[in-house]
């Protein structure tokens, strides 16, 4: 069971600069007073009452903490401490300073498949460990795949943001419609029972993007994207996959499978010949193949621009709601509205009617 310390976090940690902001709080650099070591403090707003929309349910934070405590692995962000006050919970996490994997790759002039595979292998190792504990991440996207640092010749991958993660219990049937449209599995959209196989679909999407710089199911709108996912509407365009090996395409095809039971598991992925070649010919094919850097750089630039745009939109929306609240303060709202009036600061990004997307507070 998750243990929340009642001490004041500032008694033990010096609070530093803001590293990122999200829907329910922010991430700040903190320095441990006793050792001088720097960590990341994830400050999360907690709902004050059941009708509140401002902040997270304490139970969801408890689940995230329990999951992080259960997945101690070199490729998963480390949780050190948890503090609780009246209005917020603070998670003290490993400071992952290397930035996003996709940003790191986008800075390169070229990248062989064999080099990209070393990153994929680490992702799969972390995921395999999680799945062995019956835990699914459910939010595997580029923003949640980070590097421990960006100075090492072979940086370590870190999976972050377990806000949507779930621990499966025996006999449990779990459904959720949370996630990001272009990365979620068909069973999420269809509101069907979920399993760790949903993560493997996301691995297939991320691999497709990494190799080609193209998102396999991306439509003009989120609704179009969801329809493409349901219809399995994707292909390997020659223009984008001209330098891709047949083994890499086979790897993706064995993940982008509509039936979750027929997808490769993380363990099976680690044994696939694209990841672990058996013959010299397979090794040679990997070393001759490369990712489409020109297209990948364009995709990553668009992705970063969209993230910035969404953040600006959200900030403007919050300011607008605050102004509306001030303008209506002279009237006496009904008791329920008065009880929840602080919630007017809260907004949710709704990419489609089927989905509830939660902006990551770690990205």
Automatic annotation (TrEMBL):
At the top level, the lineage of the source is Eukaryota
Q: Which residue intervals define the domain Protein kinase in the entry?
A: 13-275
* GO molecular function annotation: ATP binding; protein serine/threonine kinase activity
InterPro entries from the xrefs? Kinase-like_dom_sf, Prot_kinase_dom, Protein_kinase_ATP_BS, Ser/Thr_kinase_AS
For the region Disordered, give the residue spans.
328-363
User: Which keywords appear in this protein's UniProt record, sorted alphabetically?
Assistant: ATP-binding, Kinase, Nucleotide-binding, Serine/threonine-protein kinase, Transferase
- Entry binding sites for ATP: 42
Indicate the family of this protein: Belongs to the protein kinase superfamily.
Per the UniProt record, which EC number(s) apply here?
2.7.11.1
Q: What name does UniProt use for this protein?
A: non-specific serine/threonine protein kinase
Which cellular component, as a GO term, is one annotated location? Answer: nucleus
Question: One GO BP annotation here?
Answer: intracellular signal transduction
């Amino acid at each position: 069971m998750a243990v929340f310390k009642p001490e004041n976090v500032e008694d033990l940690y010096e609070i530093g600069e803001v590293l990122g902001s999200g829907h329910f709080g922010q991430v700040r650099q903190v320095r441990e007073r006793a050792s001088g070591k720097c960590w990341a403090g994830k400050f999360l707003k907690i709902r004050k009452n059941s009708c509140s929309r401002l902040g997270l349910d304490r139970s969801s934070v408890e689940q995230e903490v329990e999951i992080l405590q259960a997945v101690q692995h070199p490729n998963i962000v480390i949780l050190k401490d948890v503090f609780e006050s009246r209005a917020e919970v603070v998670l003290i996490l490993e400071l992952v300073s290397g930035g996003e994997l996709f940003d790191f790759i986008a800075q390169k002039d070229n990248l062989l498949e064999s080099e990209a595979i070393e990153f994929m292998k680490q992702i799969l190792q972390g995921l395999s460990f999680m799945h062995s504990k019956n835990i699914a991440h459910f939010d595997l996207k580029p923003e949640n795949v980070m590097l421990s640092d960006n100075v090492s010749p072979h940086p370590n991958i870190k999976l972050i943001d377990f806000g949507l993660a779930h621990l499966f219990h025996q006999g449990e049937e779990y459904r959720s419609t949370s996630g990001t449209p272009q990365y979620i599995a068909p069973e999420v959209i269809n509101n069907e029972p979920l399993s760790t196989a949903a993560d493997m679909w996301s691995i297939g999407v991320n691999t497709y993007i990494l190799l080609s710089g193209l998102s396999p199911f991306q439509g003009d709108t989120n609704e179009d994207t969801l329809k493409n996912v349901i219809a399995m509407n994707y292909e390997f365009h020659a223009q984008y996959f001209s330098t891709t090996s047949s083994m890499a395409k086979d790897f993706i095809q064995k993940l982008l499978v509509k039936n979750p039971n027929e997808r490769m598991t993380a363990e099976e992925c680690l044994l696939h010949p694209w990841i672990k070649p058996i013959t010299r010919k397979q090794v040679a094919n990997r070393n001759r193949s490369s990712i489409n850097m020109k297209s990948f750089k364009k995709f990553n630039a668009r992705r970063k621009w969209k993230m910035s745009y969404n953040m600006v939109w959200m900030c403007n929306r919050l300011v607008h709601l605050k102004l509306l609240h001030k303008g209506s303060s002279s009237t006496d709202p009904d008791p329920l509205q008065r009880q929840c009036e602080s919630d007017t600061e809260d907004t949710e990004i709704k990419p489609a009617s089927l989905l509830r997307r939660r902006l990551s507070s770690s990205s």
